[in-house]
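Worked Example 4.2. Consider the chain below.
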Amino acid sequence: MCDQDHFEEDRQRYEALGSVTRKQFGIMLGAGMAMMLPQVANAAAVTESDVTVTTPDGSADCYFVHPASGTAPGVLIWPDIFGLRPAFRQMGKRLAESGYSVLVVNPFYRVKKAPTADAGSATPIPQLLPLAQALNETTQMTDAKAFIAWLDKQPSVAKNRKIGTQGYCMGGPMAFRTSAAVPDRVGAVASFHGGGLVTDKPNSPHLQAAATKAQFLIAIAANDDMRSPKEKDVLKETFAKANLHAEIEVYTDSAHGWCPPDSQVYNEPMAEKAWSRLLVLYGKALA
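Applying the procedure from the previous section yields the following structure tokens:
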């Protein structure tokens, strides 16, 4: 799960610097607005829709977007604790415009359909913790299998190319476990300011991921690294021992939660760097 207490501290710090207030930001998100991401060069025309994916535990409401013609590698996106919302739809669409068939999921579908955070990323973390705490290794692995199987049934998904998965904050370990749940299908995994990637348990997400054959991109927030300076070393040692390609980097001047464009700690230069590295990863691993 995300380091939620520190996320809140970071948000308050950025508010103090004069950025948009929590109330203003909540109004913006309530109107369905989100900061615009940079345009994709030579963007593909895409088809987008709201879809329902049947899982062993119910019906998950999701957003699916893909190039309007032909087939493309599938990608599964796990949002942060604020869930499926306009910012993540925008991120999914941007990735589809770059040539991927993208499923953005509502990880909290068992309890509530999206939007699950009333004020988007301005929603107080304590209101959302019960949703996040209801998820565990079993739900993550079960959902991962169902979502990947759904992608493989779509005509727009290339069956002869590996699938990628990426997660943000609490979605980081979910992306790791997706590779463990469907190791023969997932070829690339990306985690952006992921929380809970490394634990002292035998089922730690990083150990499960290291037992696969995927390639990895792990983008670590600078303040997360300050709080857990040994975690990057554990990750590097674990993936090196498994002979897996893993690009592991601390992103300077970034705060936990810096990638989604609606985040109050959004850092466009660092987010764009992470995005470019994601495209490099997918270009190699999903080719």
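The first helix runs from residue 4 to 16. The CA atoms of residues 15 and 78 lie 27 Å apart. Compare this with Example 4.1 before moving on.
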